[in-house]
Write a structure and sequence with these properties.
This protein has 246 residues and is mostly helical. The protein has one domain. The protein is built from 10 helices and no strands. It starts with a helix and ends with a helix.
Length: 246
């Protein structure tokens, strides 16, 4: 299983660099739209072809998903994001005028595709393959850590921002795991969650490079992730069957 997962991550970077290069070279999309977001999804689909004998399956829509799950996928990031926005407003954080608003309509049209492109890879393939072999908490941490480096625009913002970004993505991975682990890692549910994360981030786009904002954002999401683990210890802390035979 290590080979397909390693191949997936290498292909993710290949497609990230390829799509990012194409976008920069052609200039057919504004820089605020990340064509490279399709990279993880393309990597996952490539793995299905390259390792077709493994019979990997990606679940776009699970029949086990009820309306409540879709509602939670939207309500959790929207609610937590609103709390973060309120807390951010209490502090005079240094900000900049974001260029994103000049392309807002195009960005809003793109966001569902970007969220879907990422979640086909991160939840639909990677986390689904790690799940039978690792405790939920450990697999969520690993997915969050692997998810972090593709946010290359933040890697030049200093160690603190990168560290807090990693904490934030691990926290998101934990909450997402709780939402999709029992519905075959449904991509649609994960993509809705991801989409609302991106939508709510528009409210704080002017401070997305500010370490103080990331301290607030990561801290709130860590609390949400900790509550999630506390409420569902069986899915996060229980050893998998394969572990018990080691």
């Amino acid at each position: 299983m290590l080979l397909p997962i390693s191949a997936f991550y290498l292909l993710t970077w290949f497609f990230l660099i390829l799509l990012g290069g194409i976008q920069e070279y052609t200039g057919f999309l504004p820089p605020q739209i990340g064509l490279a977001q399709l990279g993880p999804g393309l990597a996952a689909l490539a793995i299905l072809i390259l390792f077709k004998k493994k019979n990997f399956q990606i679940t776009f829509i699970s029949k086990q998903t009820n309306l409540k799950r879709y509602f939670l996928a939207a309500a959790i990031p929207a609610g937590v994001g609103t709390i973060v926005y309120f807390l951010r407003s209490l502090f005079p954080l240094e900000s900049h005028t974001p260029e994103i608003y000049s392309q807002l309509s195009l960005i809003l049209l793109w966001m569902p595709f970007g969220a879907l492109g990422e979640e086909i890879g991160w939840r639909g393939f990677l986390h689904k393959q790690l799940n039978p072999r690792m405790r939920g908490l450990f697999s969520s941490i690993l997915v969050g850590l692997l998810w972090m480096p593709i946010h290359v625009t933040y890697l030049t913002q200093g160690f603190m921002v990168v560290f807090l970004l990693a904490i934030w993505l691990i926290s998101l991975s934990i909450v997402l795991f709780a939402l999709v682990h029992d519905i075959e890692f449904s991509i649609l549910v994960a993509a809705i969650f991801h989409l609302f994360i991106n939508l709510i981030s528009l409210l704080t786009f002017d401070v997305l490079t500010n370490p103080a904002f990331w301290t607030i954002n990561a801290s709130v999401w860590v609390i949400v992730a900790a509550i999630t683990v506390f409420l569902k210890p069986d899915i996060f802390l229980t050893k998998k069957s394969e572990d018990k035979h080691e």
